[in-house]
């Protein structure tokens, strides 16, 4: 790696790429997966036979929507705030149900990807036109600072798709503590969490045979090439997922297949890779009831109820403040 004067960063992406590729070991945040192409690839991943998470959570929401609705509903109505909403495919199960029940609510999806929010808003306009929707582009960190402003009526915060797994355990505690700090006594937090299970099933979910997950991971390099004028050769890197059943951590890497130097012109940076050096790109922490209870306790939250699928692959937990 060869640096001259540190550049002035034009975007958060530029700053994070600079910091991640000049640290050792190298890393890039998974939140940058989601540009237009990344959104499209993730929607393909959700349809893959190996990626069981979406189907299992969908099943839970369909089967238990009545009971979930009863837990959410309140006389004064509620604000339904979803963090990292994505395409909202599963949330629509609840939204349709709430509309049929004539619940008084507003849906506020939040996502780092403006592209996915626009797609979600458009699809809601045609599929469930009766509901009030107020999308907001931003990161979890940005939204956490504003959440407590929603205090005129009950708020329900949704965090589906095991998005919590993309945070390290300490980040997850900080995140949940932030959620708790924004909650009033009647507010609820509803979170979907992928559970520990046969290690091969988990590993396969991040290593599909059609190569879509590999393309999703490598798309980060394409994004750096395009947005920061770099020359990553995608063929010179390979996607490498791991799963450790002891810690419950699935990790994805991009591994350099040879010694190489990559130029990132916008950052005035040359990045040197040894042969087989890694870039850590994603963590997908798996949990069980014990570790979720521990997280909740650390954050000052209490589990009210949980719902699961037949094989107990995935769970949706409802929390209130302690
Ligand atoms: C794994 S997808 C899950 C989407 C949806 N919750 C689901 O269950 O299908 C993660 C979503 O969170 C968004 N996201 C990732 N990191 C984020 C961050 N730090 N702040 C806000 N949104 C983020 C992504 O753009 C993406 O739409």
UniProtKB/TrEMBL annotation:
GO terms for molecular function: L-histidine N(alpha)-methyltransferase activity. It is an enzyme of class 2 (transferase). InterPro entries: EgtD (IPR035094), EgtD_Methyltrsf_superfamily (IPR051128), MeTrfase_dom (IPR019257), MeTrfase_EgtD-like (IPR017804), SAM-dependent_MTases_sf (IPR029063). It comes from the Bacteria. SUPFAM superfamilies: S-adenosyl-L-methionine-dependent methyltransferases (SSF53335). It holds the Pfam family Methyltransf_33. Coiled coil: none annotated. Keywords: Methyltransferase, Transferase. The keyword Transferase applies. This is L-histidine N(Alpha)-methyltransferase. It comes from Salinimicrobium oceani.
């Amino acid at each position: 790696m060869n640096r001259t004067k540190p550049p002035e960063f034009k975007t958060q992406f530029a700053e994070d790429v600079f910091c991640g590729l000049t640290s050792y070991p190298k890393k890039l945040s998974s939140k940058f997966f989601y540009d237009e192409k990344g959104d499209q690839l993730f929607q393909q991943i959700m349809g893959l036979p190996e990626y069981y998470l979406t189907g299992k959570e969908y099943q839970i929401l369909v089967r238990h929507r009545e009971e979930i609705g009863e837990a959410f509903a309140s006389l004064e109505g509620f604000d339904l705030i979803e963090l990292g909403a994505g395409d909202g495919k599963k949330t629509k199960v609840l939204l349709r149900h709430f509309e049929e029940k004539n619940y008084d609510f507003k849906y506020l999806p939040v996502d780092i990807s403006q592209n996915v929010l626009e797609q979600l808003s458009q699809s809601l306009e045609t599929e469930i036109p009766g509901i009030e929707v107020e999308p907001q582009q931003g990161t979890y960190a940005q939204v956490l600072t504003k959440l407590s402003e929603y205090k005129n009526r009950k708020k329900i915060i949704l965090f589906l798709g095991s998005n919590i797994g993309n945070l390290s355990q300490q980040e997850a505690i900080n995140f949940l503590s932030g959620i708790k700090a924004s909650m009033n006594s009647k507010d609820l937090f509803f979170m979907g969490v992928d559970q520990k299970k046969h290690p091969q099933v988990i590993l396969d979910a991040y290593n599909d045979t059609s190569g879509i997950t590999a393309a999703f991971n490598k798309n980060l390099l394409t994004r750096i090439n395009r947005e920061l004028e770099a020359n990553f050769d995608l063929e010179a890197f390979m996607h490498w997922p791991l799963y450790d059943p002891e810690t419950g951590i699935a990790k994805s890497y991009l591994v350099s297949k040879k010694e190489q130097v990559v130029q990132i012109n916008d950052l005035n940076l040359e990045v040197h890779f040894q042969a087989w050096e890694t870039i850590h790109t994603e963590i997908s922490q798996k949990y069980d009831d014990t570790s979720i209870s521990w997280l909740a306790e650390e954050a000052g939250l209490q589990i009210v109820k949980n719902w699961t699928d037949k094989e107990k692959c995935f769970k949706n937990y409802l929390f209130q403040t302690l």
